[in-house]
Amino acid sequence: MEKGEIRINTENIFPIIKKAVYSDHEIFLRELVSNAVDAISKRRMASMAGDCENCDEPQVKITIDREKNILKISDNGIGMNDEEIKKYINQVAFSSAEEFLTKYKKDNDEFIGHFGLGFYSSFMVADKVNILTKSAIGNSKTFNWSCDGSPNFTLEESERDSVGTDVILHLMDEEKEFIEPERIKSLIKKYCDFMPIDVLLEGETINKKNPPWRKQPSELKDEDYIELYKYLYPFQGDPLLWIHLNTDYPYDIQGILYFPKLSGRADWEKGEIKLFCNQVFVSDSIKEIVPKYLLPLRGVIDSTDIPLNVSRSALQTDRKVRSISSFISKKIANKLKDLIKNSPEFYTEIWDSISAFIKIGAIEDEKFADLVENSIIFETIINSDKDVKKYLDDKSLIKSKEKFYTTLSNYKERNNIVDSKKIIYCSDVIGQSSALKICLSDNKEVIKSDPLIDAQFLPWIENKNENYQFQRVDSEINELEDKDSKEIVDKDGKSNTDNLKDIISKALNNDKVTVKVQSLNSKEAPPAMILLPEQMRRINDMGAYMEQKMPGLPEYHVLLINKEHPLIAGLNKITGNKIILDKKDPVENPLASKIANHVYDMAKLSVGGLDQEQIINLQNNNADLISDLLKTSK
Ligand SMILES: Nc1ncnc2c1ncn2[C@@H]1O[C@H](COP(=O)(O)OP(=O)(O)OP(=O)(O)O)[C@@H](O)[C@H]1O
């Protein structure tokens, strides 16, 4: 058996390291400034252990020499001696981070660089790079390392006034954009804003410092949170609410997440949270750090615990990332709990804007679902004319701007719902108004559902918890029977109800429509209504959803005839003699047939079940019917 060591041909691997690892040329600046910041942290760490002097004023300076086409990044950090240059610079993929952490026994890793590759991104923009460096430790000399992008370097003694490092980039002709102060200024803003250290360009500090998310929430006012949001996301209006993440256990995570005020559809794909590592901007398009349903959130997450890949433009998707992501969703769930408990009115004001996030989150993530169970609310419609005081005093209702809101469990408790009794909901106050009025006059409480998201969310709740059953307000109407109303029975034993059913069924001549006759004692009840039995309607809705169209009126439906209504009573009367006697063809009475069809069309019209052509027909038939009625009323 032969054993050996795999070797890498530097000539071939060098171009890969220089070009392939990083996608964007501009990130060389982020890498070099991060190295400078790390060097300053290392110097501070070493000085605390008494190994060197700390610098008075840590800073990173960027200088441009237009004539010579040189960009210089200088720091007053720890610097390097010749041995360290050979170890950390000449050996690719060798970082000093671990050694520092071990040597100075630091548990919390505050360094940005770990892979030992970042420095080489400078060869994406420069055809020659010099490092002029003087170590802070011992009485070190200054060294000048130079490399033209080939695997060959030179290292010689040199001069530098003080401790620290200059990285000198001789820019390629095609990368001359990086000699423009405005370009560098915008890169400093992008990558160095909120760094703990001043980054100067031509003597002027360019970066914003003191990130608010590093402060204690008690030190910040609402205005501070809003100001940061507006700085990060200009022209976006104020955020709805924010969550200040500020923990060191189990993860070191600082940050502020905002629920934006979204106009139109939420962008569920984009991911606009800015990721920082130790106050150094890493990326604004990292998606894995929050669960997918929270992607429309904005703001900042700053953590050294997030495992970045080499290019720092993506995450290593591992258990830790998943665990951080569920930690963040837990924090959000806790914030919602806190708001509903302590600021219920404010919560109802923002609820419409955040409910889609929360409901989709619950559907997608079981743990989140359990956490937000009692933070999911519905506007609820009650017949407050009857006993306003009772409702106003009811602690299980949230009152806000003349509206009432409830959680589902409170609804159940308030309405004494056990076993088979269902939660009644209304998805369209106008389209379902007849049924809604009847329910309210029967003292039922009706929750308002969102026609889009709840079409998915309510069946999901039923599936998850068999104690919850929902029924749309127009799926069936309880008989509001007038106890005194007497049924007249003819010689064949047929009642008014049977006769009406016969007459109308014959007149409609449509076996997909089930005619049901009931007494609806409510004053609000119309002569007839379309009812859509719950399961039948859901199947229809689902079909429409699959075909991506609006669910229309299902072919199969129930026509509920209210025999208490004067119109129906009248219909009964005019057919009383003729039709019941004439068993062969009960709709021989053309007026009765026209009235029955009119009643049906009006019921369909009120649920939006007539198309344009049918509406025109309705107008013609109406005119016809009224003419007939006028003839008979001479
Ligand atoms: N400005 C500097 N001052 C002092 N040491 C530096 C400086 N720049 C680089 N070094 C040393 O060179 C090493 C390699 O740097 P490089 O940027 O290639 O990788 P890194 O920063 O350690 O890791 P990463 O690839 O994750 O950025 C660093 O770990 C550090 O020891």
Describe the structure.
InterPro entries: HATPase_C_sf, Heat_shock_protein_90_CS, HSP90_C, Hsp90_fam, Hsp90_N, Ribosomal_Su5_D2-typ_SF. This protein is α+β, with helices and mostly antiparallel strands. It folds into four domains: 11-205, Histidine kinase-like ATPase, C-terminal domain (Heat Shock Protein 90); 212-330, Ribosomal Protein S5, domain 2 (2-Layer Sandwich); 376-472, Rossmann fold (3-Layer(aba) Sandwich), CATH 3.40.50.11260; 496-525 and 551-632, Heat shock protein 90, C-terminal domain (Four Helix Bundle (Hemerythrin (Met), subunit A), Up-down Bundle), CATH 1.20.120.790. Helices cover 38% and strands 18% of the residues. The protein has 19 helices and 22 strands. α14 packs across α18. It is elongated. It binds adenosine-5'-triphosphate. Residues 31, 35-36, 39, 75, 77-80, 88-89, 95-97, 113-119, 165 line the site of adenosine-5'-triphosphate.
Draw up the topology in text.
Layout: H1 10-20, H2 27-48, E1 59-65, E2 70-75, H3 82-89, H4 97-103, E3 126-134, E4 142-147, E5 153-158, E6 164-171, H5 181-192, E7 198-201, E8 204-205, H6 222-232, E9 241-247, E10 253-259, E11 272-277, E12 280-283, E13 298-303, H7 319-342, H8 344-364, H9 366-372, E14 377-381, H10 384-393, E15 398-400, E16 403-407, H11 408-414, E17 423-426, H12 433-441, E18 446-448, H13 454-464, E19 470-472, H14 496-508, E20 513-518, E21 528-531, H15 534-546, E22 557-562, H16 566-576, H17 578-581, H18 590-606, H19 612-632
Parallel strand pairs: 1-7, 11-13, 17-18, 17-19, 20-22
Antiparallel strand pairs: 1-2, 2-6, 3-4, 3-6, 4-5, 7-8, 9-10, 10-13, 11-12, 14-16, 14-18, 15-16, 21-22
InterPro entries: HATPase_C_sf, Heat_shock_protein_90_CS, HSP90_C, Hsp90_fam, Hsp90_N, Ribosomal_Su5_D2-typ_SF
GO molecular function: ATP binding; ATP hydrolysis activity; ATP-dependent protein folding chaperone; unfolded protein binding
Family: Belongs to the heat shock protein 90 family.
